[in-house]
Each structure stands twice: as structure tokens, then as C-alpha cells.
Amino acid sequence: MQPQTIELIGVPMDAGKARQGCRMGPDALRVAGLPEALTDLGHDVRDSGAVVPTPNDVPAHDHLIALPECVGWTDAIAQTAEDVPVETLPIFMGGDHAIALGSVSGMAARANSAGKPLFVLWLDAHSDFHTPETTDSGNLHGTPVAYFTGRPGFEQFPAPTIVPADQVCMIGLRSVDLAERAALEADKVDLVDMRAIDEHGIKAPLVAFLNRVEAAGGHLHVSLDVDFLDPRVAPAVGTTVPGGATEREAHLVMELLHDSGLVTSLDIVELNPFLDDRGRTAKLMVDLVASLMGRRIFDRPTRSF
């Protein structure tokens, strides 16, 4: 494994939904040892601190939660992402999943500047394909994929750099609204729900997607939501859905991603330390990132809780 330059970018965004706590996610990952785990693997790790949202004059909305704040975060995150040197792998430490409104758009702009298409692997229980018009909850953390694939309704937001929907693969789905499902199928997003994983395993659909990325010479952004995992192993998330990926399945995904050599950026989102059990989830997320960045199965430390 070749050492890489990794930039840790804290995104203490807690505006994408009503339930608070994700703003503590970046510091929880630091305390759980993310910088040290990556340094121990031989990588050059730089912590750039925290993104600060851009001030704006977007008015508050009667239904959408914290719309002005989400617009400000999106603008700041996208610019931060686009400015990361192409030879550096940024890890965006969230924060709720609304950080992907900015991180994916910024990574798409960076890929375009390098003459490469961006592909997105969405590891999540939810598709997050609502628009501001279709969301019943008003939680904008349920809208990022709709935003960066160019669905209408985001006029208050900065114009995103578009990622075509057929360059998005969602793995781990188990909570998708009917309106989202119809839109996803129409836009030809690659969908892998937990039934498909139960029947065929998690490796085959992931490898098929990675082969597409490689064939296109693309960059790959991975957006890892804590609720991709089953809440029995990762309780520190406010959007728990039973029946998620096991710890072993999640490690296999990370190991296959490492083997591919295709990953150019990563989100870690929806970690809410207020809901954790003695740091259990934060430590697991650190271990998963370490697997993504080259930790072998024989090198894993024994964890105590």
C-alpha cells in the first residue's frame, strides 16, 4: 500500500434535521483515534480543523428546517472540497448527511477540473432523494442525492456540479419512501437494498459498480452513513433502521474499496455521540476507515467497551 496524503475536514453541521447531536461527530472521531489510526498506517495526515458556514440572506422557511444554515454550510463545504488538491484524499467528518450537499458537489467540481467523472457510492439505509418540495419532515439531510444529481427545487442553494444519477450506487437501502423510489427508478440510480444483500451477498453489486468506475477512469466519492450499519453494532445515530449491514459486511466493503484503489474522497456522517454507548460507534467508524485505508484483517486491534 502506497502512503497517501489525507486531509481531515471537520464539518460540525447539525442543521439538516431537527434532532441535534451530530455537531459533536468530528471531535468524537478525533477522540476515538482517527488521526492516529491513519498515521499508524503510514499516511500523511493533516487536520484542517472545522468548516465555517458562509453567511447569506436566505430567508427562513415555514417547512424546511434551518434552510439558511443549510445553504451556508453547502456553499462553504463545496468550496472547501473543490480546493483540496487532487493528490490529497479528503475525509469529511460530519455532521449530518446534509454535508453531502456540499461535499459531493465540490468533489464533482474537483473531478471535472481533472477531466474525470465522479461516481458516488452511497452507503445508507435511506436514499436521501427527496427535494425541498417532496420532503414531509422538512429535514434537508434527506435531500443531498436529489441536489447533486440535478433534481429541481433547490433554487435557494448554490448551483451544484452535477453527478449524473446513473453514476450513483446506493447499497444498504431499507427505508425508502414511495415517491423517492419512483424517482430513483426513473433516474436509473443503481439500487441495492438489504434483501438483495441477503440473497446475493454484498460483494457482487459493489464489485460490479467498482468495475464501472474503473472502466470510466472515474474518481470515487464514498458517503458512509452510520445507519448503513445495523443499530445493534452502531447505536449512535438518530435515524436507526433495524436490519442493516453487519460489522463484518461493512469491513468487507471497506476492504474491497481499498483493494480497488479508486476512492478519492470520503464522508463519515450522522454520528451522534450523545446516543453512543461508551464511544462504541465512533470507534467502529474509525476501524472501518482504517480498513478502507489499508489496515489488514490480521492488524485489527482488540476493542473493549
Order of helices and strands: EHHEHEHEHEHEHHEHEH
The major pleated sheet works out as:
8 strands, parallel
Side by side, the strands of the main sheet go 2-1-3-8-7-4-5-6
What characteristic shape results from the CA principal axes? globular
Please identify which CATH superfamily we are dealing with: Ureohydrolase domain
Structural category is: alpha/beta
Low-confidence stretches: none
Ends: how far apart?
30 Å
Oligomer: single chain
- Number of helices in the DSSP assignment: 10
Beta fraction of the residues? Answer: 15-25%
Tell me, what is the CATH class? Alpha Beta
Mean pLDDT: 95
Structural commentary:
- With 305 residues, the protein is of the alpha/beta class.
- It has one domain: 3-Layer(aba) Sandwich (Arginase, Chain A), CATH 3.40.800.
- Helix content is 35%, strand content 17%.
- The protein contains ten helices and eight strands.
- Strands 2-1-3-8-7-4-5-6 form an eight-stranded parallel beta sheet, sandwiched between helices.
- α8 (203-216) packs parallel to α9 (247-260) and α9 (247-260) packs parallel to α10.
- The longest helix has 17 residues, at 67-83.
- The model has no long low-confidence stretch (mean pLDDT 95).
Keywords:
305 residues; Arginase, Chain A; 8 strands; 10 helices; 35% helix; eight-stranded parallel β-sheet; alpha/beta
